[in-house]
Amino acid sequence: MSTAETIDKATDGSSDAPLLIRREDAVTVLTLNRPAARNALAECLLDALAAAFADLHDDAETKTVVLTGAPPAFCAGHDLREMTEARAQADRGRAYFATIFAKCSAVMQAIVACPKPVIAAVDGIATAAGCQLVATCDLAVAGAGARFATPGVNIGLFCSTPMVALTRNVSPKHAMEMLLTGEMADAGRAEAIGLVNRVVPEGQALEAAMALARLIADKSPLTVKTGKEAFYRQREMPLADAYAYTARVMTENMLARDAEEGIGAFLEKRKPVWTGS
């Protein structure tokens, strides 16, 4: 199913689909929709997210993506009830666990690979793989009442896959503290350690994330795509390699029509007209 077809199905709050999808102009909003389970990442929700990001990758009408959760939570991580049920299988759930963690990791990588910036709008809790989702998104806005944790250590299951995203967003010691203690961090603390970009009044995270998404959507889509890809690629390179790579990226970017138009518009003191080329 294409993104457009999903949106046309009027995904509103009355739907029982695990993921709601709607578009507002150039912004597509994805809403985790398992509120009774605090939007836990059951297999059906991971599959829906994977399909949505596959569609969004080449969706020319979408310039930015906002990811949020149906109240009262953003996302409580993996569905522990579903995982516990898998223990009844002959292999004690080994195959299921391997599958669910692989699917979750694939979704996180799809967010990074998506050429559109993805913004998390967080109200309520974001724990374990839910915290991983926040850390994976390119930007994050939190309501003042939002709370974050990687609490696996408290139940005998270290948050090893959430650790991947967490350690790429906050300093090693702050990440290790969250991982080893499992304690909740409030929104102010999350902002201070770099897990979220900004904190807004409780209940206003989605509104603020939408404003940020519209601001970015007004930029050249080619330039934003180029910049996001380069950001993640250069981060894993040694310093000299990163400079060599980004110099090549900027050279190609300068030859793009949007760069020529943008520079010309700046010099002529007018609004640029982007073509995405």
Automatic annotation (TrEMBL):
GO MF terms held by the record: hydro-lyase activity
| CDD domains in the record | crotonase-like
SUPFAM superfamilies, sorted: ClpP/crotonase
Q: Which domain of life is it from?
A: Bacteria
Record key words, sorted: Fatty acid metabolism, Lipid metabolism, Lyase, Transit peptide
Transit peptide among keywords: yes
Q: Which residues form a coiled coil?
A: none
Q: Which InterPro entries match?
A: ClpP/crotonase-like_dom_sf, Enoyl-CoA_hydra/iso, Enoyl-CoA_hydra_C, Mitochondrial_ECH-domain
Protein's GO biological process: fatty acid metabolic process
Q: Which family would the database say this protein is a member of?
A: Belongs to the enoyl-CoA hydratase/isomerase family.
Role according to the record = May play a role in fatty acid biosynthesis and insulin sensitivity.
- Protein name in the entry: Enoyl-CoA hydratase domain-containing protein 3, mitochondrial
Native organism:
Microbaculum marinisediminis
